[in-house]
Every structure is written in C-alpha cells, then in structure tokens.
Design brief:
The structure holds two protein chains of two kinds. Chain A is mostly helical. Helix content of chain A is about 75%, strand content about 0%. Chain A has two domains: about 45 residues, no CATH class; about 50 residues, no CATH class. Chain B folds into two domains: about 170 residues, no CATH class; about 50 residues, no CATH class. In chain B, α1 crosses α9, α2 runs parallel beside α9 and α6 packs parallel to α8. The chains are: A mainly alpha, B mainly alpha.
C-alpha cells in the first residue's frame, strides 16, 4: 500500500515537471507571456522565502527572521553564496542557543 | 588538428560540469541535512529503507515527502495523500515552463532529465544562470547542477534511514535556514541590478502572505508565483531582464 502511495505521489509530481519539456518547442509565446515567464523565478523566490522563513524554528519566528536578515547583510557585503548560507546557519545556531 | 579540437571539446564539457558542481555547492549544503532528517523521520515513522529510497528517487520533492510520511502515519487515505502532493508540487509546472523556455534550443532528450530533477532550488539557481544556456555545452552545466542535488538528496535519505541521527539536532534544525539563505543570496543581487525584479518578488510575497491566511501552503505559493509572474508583464515591459 505504501508503495502504491509513493507511485501515485511520483506520478503527480513528475507529470507537471515534464509537460513543459515536452511541449515548449511547439509553443510560440507572445512577448508579454515571455515577460511573465522571465519574471517567474523572481516571483517564486519571493514566495518561497516569505513567510516560510519564519518557520525555520517552530514557534520562534524571530530566529528564522534574523537568519534571513543575516543572509541579506552578507549578500550586500558581496560574499559568495556558500558563505551566505554558512553565515546564516551560524546565526540561527547561535540564536537557538540564546533563546 | 582534429585531435586538438576533440581535446578542446572534451575539456569544455568537463569544465562546464565542474562549473555546475561548484555553483551547486550551496544546494548540496542545504539538501544534506534535510535529506538526513527525512531518512531519520521516515524510518522512525515505520517506513522501510526501500520505501524511503523509493520516495526520494521517484518523488524527489522535499516538502511533499515529509508531508506524505506524516499523512501515512496519520492513516490518511491514498487518494488524499496523492492529491495533497499534486497541489504542493504543482508550482513546479510553472517553474518548469519558465526554465524550459530558457532552454528552448535544447533537444527533448536534453530537456527531459533536467525537467525530471527540477526542484525549487535547482530552478532558482539555474534561472539566475541564464547565460550558460547559450554557451557551448551548457547542458553539462545544468546537468551537473541538477544531478548533484538529486544525488545528495537520495544518498542523504539513505544515510539518514540507515544511521539515524547523524547530525546533532540543534545543528540540523539550524541548517533548515540554509535553503532560505540560498534563495535570499540569489534574489538580492538581481534586485540590486534591477529594482523592478524586487517589485516582482514583493508582489509575490504580498500575495503569498495574504493567500496563506486562507489557503494551504501549496496553493498559496502557486497563486503567488503566478500573480508575481504576471506582474512581470508590467514591470519588465521596457526590455528583457538578463
């Protein structure tokens, strides 16, 4: 039964992922639709970051928020992505010790 | 002469793969603790190692895997779990459309493995790295980037299922911020370059905050991504954003 559920989960996950790969060359988008598709990554990033980041630590939204602020600051300093990630993890780790 | 070209070609394929591996490092760092945790939680919930691996290999979508295991434990019906998974992962349809539009010139055979292993994180990193799509052997860059994430995810779940808690709990909890930090580190430089990009993200955030009050996370993220994308018709009207 569990394998049946896994198979079902796989099918409904895979189909939406591959349909665009299968049909994109048959579609010719109007310029406005191109613009919308170009905007999708930035829209997705926004939607994935907030409010999700508040739930890094259950019941302690402030910890996730501070982790995010540290990531923003490190990005502005111009650090490489990997150090932004490590710095943010360290900030959350120390916050979780303190609160 | 032809030998010389051959060497150059094989070099640049490997170079592109190395480039993909390096660019994918933050994803690796972000996935490992989550995958380990998935393995641990699933085996504690009574799933066999085979079931854990099957889920990571065939579903390969973090949040929905945790939700699936949780619902299995709660005794939810199969159909209920599958529909919830569909809703939660349907955002990949929108992302895949955007990414495949970037890879228009690729053959279906090249697009397929990238589509199959598309995740939020792989998509986010790949769509910030647009220029590689036009470079020679760009496919190898994206393939290395996507398959690294996949390999780390599958191996991490296996290790978690086999060994149990490998990382101290506080550390693995703290590493939960990694993927958000990755998203922030990808978004901010684009915003610095083009303020309009920040407007698009803000629209998506606002829509997500409002929708999450009365919708499931899955629907809320989909609506926010679509509305944010549509706002790009206005914000990007002057020219193309690189």
């Amino acid at each position: 039964m569990i394998y049946f559920i896994i198979a079902g989960m796989a099918v409904v996950t895979i189909i939406p992922r591959i349909i665009p790969a299968a049909i994109i060359h048959k579609l010719n988008f109007r310029p406005w639709l191109h613009r919308a598709l170009q905007a999708v990554p930035f829209a997705a990033l926004g939607a994935l970051i907030f409010p999700g980041i508040l739930s890094v630590y259950e019941d302690k939204p402030l910890i996730g928020l501070v982790g995010g602020i540290v990531a923003v600051v490190l990005t502005f300093i111009g650090l490489h992505l990997i150090f932004i990630v490590i710095g943010s993890i360290a900030a959350v780790y120390f916050m979780s010790l303190a609160f | 002469m032809s030998e010389h070209t051959d060497i150059q070609v094989s070099n640049s394929k490997i170079d592109m793969m190395k480039h993909g591996l390096i660019i994918g490092m933050p994803i690796t760092l972000g996935y490992l603790p989550v995958a380990l945790t998935f393995g641990v939680v699933s085996s504690q919930s009574g799933l066999t190692l085979g079931q854990i691996i099957a889920m990571s290999v065939f579903v390969y979508a973090g949040a929905s895997q945790f939700m699936g295991v949780n619902m299995i434990v709660m005794g939810a019906g199969a159909l209920e779990i599958i529909i919830a998974t569909f809703v939660l992962n349907f955002r990949h349809f929108v992302m895949s459309f955007s990414f495949m539009n970037q890879l228009r010139d690729y053959s279906f055979i090249e697009r397929l493995p990238l589509a199959l292993t598309l995740t939020d994180e792989a998509f986010a990193v790949a769509s910030i790295h647009k220029q590689e799509a036009k470079q020679k052997h760009g496919f190898y860059f994206y393939a290395a980037l996507f398959l690294t994430g996949y390999a780390v995810w599958v191996l991490g779940s296996l290790l978690g299922g086999l060994l149990g808690e490998v990382l101290p709990e506080r550390l693995s909890d703290s590493m939960g911020v990694a993927l958000y930090a990755l998203f922030i580190g990808l978004l901010i430089p684009s915003v610095k370059q083009e303020l309009r990009v920040g407007m698009i993200a803000m629209v998506a955030i606002l829509v997500n905050v409002i929708c999450s009050l009365f919708m499931s996370t899955g629907w809320s993220v989909i609506v926010a991504t679509v509305v944010g994308g549509l706002s790009g018709i206005y914000f990007l009207r002057e020219d193309e954003v690189s």
